[in-house]
Amino acid sequence: MSSTLPAPILPESFASVEGVKPLLHLYTAGTPNGRKPSILLEELHAAYPESKELVYDVYSLKFSDNDQKKPEFLKINPNGRIPALVDDNVAGGHNVWESASILLWLTEKYDKENKFWFDKAEDKSDALSWIFFAHGGVGPMQGQANHFFRYAPEKIPYGIKRYQDETSRLYSVLEDRLSDPKSGGWLAGGKYSVADINVFPWVNGHTWAGVETTPFPALEKWLEAINARPAVKKGLNVPPSPAPPKNKEEEEKRAEEARAWIMKGVEEKK
Ligand SMILES: N[C@@H](CCC(=O)N[C@@H](CS)C(=O)NCC(=O)O)C(=O)O
């Protein structure tokens, strides 16, 4: 096992461009939190195709190698979790960590025309409410649903039900918002924004947590609309992801592989 991090790779969007020098460096993995910044980076690149500042490369960290706990990475994110971003467009470099914080940094610095953000204070405030709601609610609760449903060494029905029910309740809050005709089908300001990007990869991964979206038609419509965006398709494949499991056996095999490193991490923290 190497003590250094994997070498960075250029995402598809920049692979064929000559002489690019990435100044944004994304440290990530194929998880819901890990996909948020790659989706926004792809959206920003599509919206501002001439901007050289938006060229980024990707350090695809391997949890099975505990890359996220290596000293080199802990200098960037002291919490030892992905995602993190180093912005070398700023003199001396600037480190950003926590997925929602990365989205807000990228918006503040590079979304000059507020294509994914807002001019009006009320819209910004609404977007922040939905961002905090997802960051403190949907992410942690669905993360725990994943853990108890997929990875825990014992099946604890109480834990599974508690976190699945809570995730489902949070989805019902999203549903109420998205089904309100005044919302235009988006979380804030009547348009697709960082507020949507911040929670989308979690809801998109609902099957892994064993949570249904069928009771929530407006949420399903929202999922479909976001999944149809070309930049989202690209962002979901940074770093490149394997095809979804085809059947229950494949699902269990994936969970088993992840269970090994997750439980190793739990043991080491004791
Ligand atoms: N609140 C953090 C959560 C980050 C997080 O939990 N990342 C997970 C992947 S989604 C991770 O790095 N897990 C590896 C570990 O726990 O060692 C954020 O939104 O960035």
From TrEMBL:
Cited CDD domains: GST_C_YfcG_like, GST_N_Ure2p_like
Domain annotation GST N-terminal: ranges: 21-114
UniProt-listed InterPro entries: Glutathione-S-Trfase_C-like, Glutathione-S-Trfase_C_sf, Glutathione_S-Trfase, Glutathione_S-Trfase_N, GST_C, Thioredoxin-like_sf
All copies of domain GST C-terminal, residue ranges: 120-246
Compositionally biased intervals (Basic and acidic residues): 246-258
Region described as Disordered: 233-258
SUPFAM superfamilies: GST C-terminal domain-like, Thioredoxin-like
Top-level taxon of the source organism: Eukaryota
Family statement: Belongs to the GST superfamily.
PANTHER family for the chain: GLUTATHIONE S-TRANSFERASE GSTA, GLUTATHIONE S-TRANSFERASE-RELATED
Protein name: Glutathione S-transferase
